[in-house]
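Today's session is about reading a structure prediction critically. Students often jump straight to the picture, but the first step is always the sequence itself: look for stretches that repeat, for charged clusters, for runs of hydrophobic residues. Only then move on to the predicted structure, which in these notes is written as discrete structure tokens rather than atom positions. Here is the chain we will use throughout the hour.
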Amino acid sequence: MTFHDKELTAPGTIDVAGRHVKRHHIDQPERCLEAGNFDFLVGAWTVVNRRLRQRHVGSDDWDEFPGTLVAHCFFDGAGSFDEMRCPTRGFSGSTVRLLDPTTGLWSIYWMNSRRGVLELPPVVGRFVGGVGTFYADDTDEGRPVRCRFVWSRITATSCRWEQAFSTDAEQTWETNWVMDFSRASTASTMLDGGVQEQDVSGGASSPSGE
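Below is the predicted structure for this chain, in token form.
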């Protein structure tokens, strides 16, 4: 952002002791079209999690557990932050999403309450036709994987997030975690109390393990 002096002319000229005074004019940056993509997530949610108990083995055995999530936006919609708590599984997770205004691409970073670091690499992508798709090259359980996040089924009161891994250069995908969101009435109960932390990660920097 730059600042420019702009000489004002009548009737907007300010006269101080017979002198014309310059007023600083601030150029406002143009808002990126993708800013606000995650505004739908702002607020409090109840979350139904379904997570594969074992990945990469062709399993159809899912672990289902509840969660609560509170999300916020910042940078005029070019940033998003949330915290999800899963007390029955003893962990919390947070996500930071940042928009690159030059490319229109979002970078999504996951944080685990146990490890206390910003996990890398982020998944990167954009929304097309109301569906957000984001990718990263990562590792899981010691093997290289292509990771994919998908945000879909977005309404005012519900949405879905899915995570999938590919081990064959995107020829096939295994969905290993699904979250179905329902908007909660208030956030007052979402952040009450704490949870006992434990690390149940499978090793990927995306939230595959937790």
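Discussion point for the tutorial: The two ends are 39 Å apart (CA to CA).
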